[in-house]
Design a protein that fits this description.
The protein has 13 helices and no strands. By secondary structure, it is an all-alpha fold. α2 runs parallel beside α13 and α3 packs antiparallel against α8. The longest helix is centred in the last third of the chain and has 27 residues. It is flat. It starts with a helix and ends with a helix.
Length: 292
């Protein structure tokens, strides 16, 4: 092999390694978490761009650390599911030990960064999100109960708490309200996806709700949680938010009703995708309500 060929091969290998370690951060999941972080900060006050950047970096490191450890702990499940079989650890490109070390370093870096540049409360809250996702959801609940995402989803609702603490130095009623919105949003969002992946979860032995209690019950639970979301979305802010939240909530309930009645994959996919837009638009409406 020529020198140029070896250089190209080494370069391609380095790009693969970088891509694998970036993938373990779960950037697609992080994008929504960071959006709720930024919007909450501007609901809480007038943070400087530097504070926003540091809080988002600390949050990204924490969530990325949780994601990397999750890749290692769930490698056996990921390996038998088509959607996740090519993940870095499941495919064997990254060792479980390396992924865990990577995750621990990221989590530690997040705690140090937030403690030193933001405040200790934000650091503790971010670490609680990491530990909740790894220990409560991944290690304990995911393989043991169909309610895994209901309880474990609390970890994904931590970013608004971190954001509020970063701006104000404490917590109050409003950040808990935002936490509740994300908490009640998580089950119908994730169950819509699980309907599309029921057979894969069954093959992997993961007791997701469609596997354990059937698709019909899952669709009913999605509707229940969509309706349960409405009280949290209808109050707490002013007229702009009220109008937007009512319209978005009605659309969410309509999507859940449509899924209950039609019981097809297309409706499940539509609701899953809409749920992503729903949460983003809801938090955007809060910022507009506070700022306009």
């Amino acid at each position: 092999m020529s020198g140029a060929a070896r250089t190209l091969t080494a370069s391609a290998g380095a790009r693969t390694v970088v891509a694998d370690y970036f993938e373990m951060l779960k950037p697609k999941v992080q994008s929504l978490l960071l959006f709720t972080t930024v919007t909450t900060m501007y609901i809480a006050g007038d943070p400087s761009l530097g504070l926003v950047a540091l809080t988002c970096l600390g949050g990204a490191l924490s969530a990325g650390g949780a994601g990397a450890i999750n890749h290692a702990l769930d490698r056996d499940i990921d390996a038998v599911m088509k959607r996740t079989a090519n993940r870095p650890v499941a495919s064997g490109r990254v060792s479980p030990q390396a992924a865990i070390v990577y995750g621990v370093l990221l989590g530690s870096g997040s705690f140090a960064l937030l403690s030193l540049t933001v405040n200790p409360l934000a650091a503790v809250l971010a670490m609680s999100g990491l530990l909740g996702y790894v220990l409560v959801y991944t290690v304990w609940l995911k393989r043991s109960t169909p309610q895994n995402i209901v309880i474990g989803g609390a970890a994904g609702a931590v970013p608004p708490l971190v954001a509020w603490a970063a701006v104000t130095g404490g917590l109050a009623g409003t950040p808990l309200y935002l936490f509740a919105i994300v908490f009640f949003w998580t089950p119908p969002h994730f169950w819509s996806l699980s309907l599309l992946m029921k057979d894969e979860y069954a093959r992997a032995g993961v007791p997701m709700l469609p596997v354990v209690r059937g698709e019909g019950e899952t669709r009913r639970q999605i509707l229940l949680y969509a309706v349960s979301q409405l009280p949290f979305c209808a109050g707490g802010f002013g007229g702009i938010y009220l109008v937007c939240s009512v319209l978005l909530g009605a659309a969410f309930v309509y999507g859940a009703l449509r899924l209950l009645r039609t019981a097809d994959r297309r409706s499940a996919l539509r609701l899953y995708l809409f749920s992503l837009a729903y949460l983003s638009l809801l938090f955007g409406a809060m910022v507009a309500d506070v700022r306009l």
